[in-house]
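In the previous chapter we treated chains in isolation. Here, by contrast, the input contains two separate entities that must be folded as one system, with a combined length of 1186 residues.
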Amino acid sequence: MYRTHNCGELRMSHEGTEVILSGWVQKSRDLGGLTFVDLRDRYGITQLVFNMDENEDLTSKARKLGREFVIKATGIVRERSSKNAKRETGDIEIDVTALEILNVAKTPPFTIDDDTDGGEELRMTYRYLDLRRTPLQRNLIFRSQLAIETRKYLSDQGFIEVETPSLIKSTPEGARDFVVPSRMNPGEFYALPQSPQTFKQILMVGGLDKYFQIVKCYRDEDLRADRQPEFTQIDCEMSFVTRDQILDTFEGLTKSLFKSMLDIELEDFPKMSYDEAMERYGSDKPDVRFGMEFVDFSSIAKGKGFPVFDSAEFVAGICAKGISETYSNKDIKKLTEWLQRPQIGCKGLVYVKVNGNGTFKSSVGKFYSDEELAKWVKLAGAEPGDMMLLLCGEKEKTQKQLNELRLEMGRRLGLMDPKVFKPLWVIDFPLLEWDEDSERFHAMHHPFTAPKKEDEQRMLNGDHETMKALRADAYDLVINGSEIGGGSVRIHDRDLQSKNFDLLGFTKEEAEAQFGFLLGAFEYGAPPHGGIAFGFDRLNAVMNGQNSIRDFIAFPKNTSGRDMMIDAPSPVSQAQLDELSLNLQEKEQTDKC
Amino acid sequence: MYRTHNCGELRMSHEGTEVILSGWVQKSRDLGGLTFVDLRDRYGITQLVFNMDENEDLTSKARKLGREFVIKATGIVRERSSKNAKRETGDIEIDVTALEILNVAKTPPFTIDDDTDGGEELRMTYRYLDLRRTPLQRNLIFRSQLAIETRKYLSDQGFIEVETPSLIKSTPEGARDFVVPSRMNPGEFYALPQSPQTFKQILMVGGLDKYFQIVKCYRDEDLRADRQPEFTQIDCEMSFVTRDQILDTFEGLTKSLFKSMLDIELEDFPKMSYDEAMERYGSDKPDVRFGMEFVDFSSIAKGKGFPVFDSAEFVAGICAKGISETYSNKDIKKLTEWLQRPQIGCKGLVYVKVNGNGTFKSSVGKFYSDEELAKWVKLAGAEPGDMMLLLCGEKEKTQKQLNELRLEMGRRLGLMDPKVFKPLWVIDFPLLEWDEDSERFHAMHHPFTAPKKEDEQRMLNGDHETMKALRADAYDLVINGSEIGGGSVRIHDRDLQSKNFDLLGFTKEEAEAQFGFLLGAFEYGAPPHGGIAFGFDRLNAVMNGQNSIRDFIAFPKNTSGRDMMIDAPSPVSQAQLDELSLNLQEKEQTDKC
């Protein structure tokens, strides 16, 4: 037997008991004739004591233990003379009577501590050591528990978890697929699913009524810092439901998860239209933990002789509370430079400080009288001590920039409390996006998203401009500025579906080639249905007030899509390629030579 | 709103209530002025009634409803005059006041009934219709619930579910990998995991202590009837445990699943060594629901002048109870032909009938006296009315053939009760298999499987013959002749591991190239650990007394690895190949022209 107890469970009530513990050597200290070893496992740390006077051989053996050695120790639980209140096992220690080294260990390249000295590359290469750290273990345990609570809630609501296939068919639409060559069907490929979208709709046609799945999805995109080529979704679909029934169901799920995992009671989620979100926050995923909502100054700031504003389509700003005296010229200069970086691309920043005595200090003071500025102040609801920050330009671009500015000011002013959670539904997204380059519409969500009921007739009969204004019965769940989930009511009417394909520029043949099996299924009695998918990695991070999803994934890949630990991807043999009837292209072969 | 209730929940207690139901038209019947429509959803069937005298328009509309139309019906719950005791909603019907056709349907190519008239190909092509059938829905609901119970049990035991990656590294050992070309790393490939084996061991090195995952795995094998290229495992690993602690844990899981899913209390699982299983049943996955154990007649049947037996290495048989009078010469001839098919390859069959009066009738009567045969009878424990069936030849081959004969007789005699479950652990598998062709050892389980403690020294020091006799600390869970799970204690000692690689013919460089990251991890303090993986698809089928796993998979592939519904795999565009730096090989391109 390797252990009678784990390293986190012994208490004073065990005093005098003989126990066996196994684990890793966290650290050891020699103090006079005594040697103390901290023994660690997933459950905690227990102090072992060896006494040179009582057992010289044993204590000498203990003194040779290196960090991360795996040992088994037998001994008696004793009360500690100097207790450690910070540790749950801190009242006791083990007076060791026998020691077995189960495995030795090389010295780890970084410390196995909550705050490790290892950089991210190193930690990913030695992920098995990184995983020994408490924060990472806590994250993985949280994730495991979150999945359990999710499944419990949904199955209590009558949802069935159905595994959909992951070797499916490649479709050229949307993001890029990972493909898998088929040996048995030479020249043909499977694709890994970007989502189980079509399969969950098929399941509704199949009468499953309520489906969910916590499922791996794959997307071969150029990876941004916080994207992974494989990621996990909570994927759901329901039949015979209205939009609000869907939202209620998944609002219920979200509330239940926050309650069971964090003991937080979320209030009812407000619904905000896409248009309103853009007007107020310049973003379809607004962080509503704090205000600083957009103020449209266009009507009062234009036409007063300031050429930059006069020539701009849109002048808007935010009001940062209580910083007019603390934000120096240097701070403002730095902020301006931050805004002028190519990622954001502002031309400049206009500010108006409302001084404590009610006077103003502004970068555009020579163009606007105090009387004029007083109108701005009134419009923005600014008070003495506040500072207004204004941007201008094309409306859409300026909204995006001002959104970045608002979020940055939120961060700088500490308004994003990681312990506060403000969810909302963003609804009524545009159905179609017009792409100027290709001169065609794209589906904002996907080609099966239904228009809102009141837009159906306009969709069937309207002109080009009408199409741009169509609203979809689509929705996103946003928490603290992160899109946690998104979905839609689907089209189940064939006329609407065929009109939608027309609008998206699909010929009948193209629609058939790409979605033939789903369109076929729709011929045999599709029920009204709709659903949602949650980003499970992101949900974990957001619930823990963290930005990076990587620390919630056991074995993440880096931004080149590479697993640093196993060193994948890697070349395969020509024999393997021959079996798959594939060759590498010459160029690449040459590059490798 | 589409419904106030589902089609399975209305009872007499709802009489007089106005309800809304939605679902599919199962069938409709016109009887005089009345039209009856059976409305179906996942939850059941409810009868709708339309009365021509009361509402002509509505009833005319109802008469036009086709099979599988999707409708919404509003009406009042009434007591039925002729009740249907076989249906849970059979006491009531809905007196319909409003009818909306939500979607029309083409006539399905097969009937949506428990016993459908659709062949397997057709059912797979129209899987969305097949899925509407109650047996299939029941299977998927069972599967969903089995996963929930599995997760509940394991997480109650302190196991953490960790998602391991599915874009990993290809290794030439073992079965064939599916590979995934990497666009970002031209000429390089990921592999889809055949199992998370190395990752779960890494998680143990990472201190996770108890890991599980219900996970998709992939194997590019030529598919037998009941194999799928993607399949699901319950994958588990534990640290600081002995073999028996592992077996107890997963015996506990299995018992708990049978109790919660089927209300069956399984008795403690017997343990049987591989050698014993081969001697008694000629199989490492014996079906022990019935006896007919092997009897070794070699010592008493050889050397008596029957040349066929005299020249055979091994003579063995089984005793089939109570069929000596019913099994005709024709039956025996047919059975012999069945045994002579190339799949089994027997030369012939010898039988001895023990007649009711204690006399014998045998195909080898002229070689053996009644006195001799009486010895056979005694050895086999045969009684009047029984028939002994004997085969002979090389030992291993004969064991396999006799296993097939035993199973066939079990089937023919109805001894395989699908409602009876007889689990057992088969243990002490050989560690290594000697392959005559390649003149090298193969790992019977995998290269990280530990030898039994008592074999460790012999493994480090023994000769070639000793190696053949080494036993592994490996085990299979067998239920009713199906291998449900398999696993092993892993090697955590570096000397043993390096000896094992030697035996398997790996150079140090080859071991490093294939398992480098795991061997690296083992340098940093690997704990003693072991685990198991259950075939989840198979477990579902076995628990339901069924042979085919396909009916427990929502979207299975056929034996060519093809998804008949979505028609995958399929060709991809040259543009996609170019992005992946791949070309199809000429031969295949020509074949396609």
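The domain at 290-412 of chain A is CATH 3.30.1360.30 (Gyrase A; domain 2). Chain A has 19 helices and 23 strands. Compare these points with the single-chain example from earlier in the chapter.
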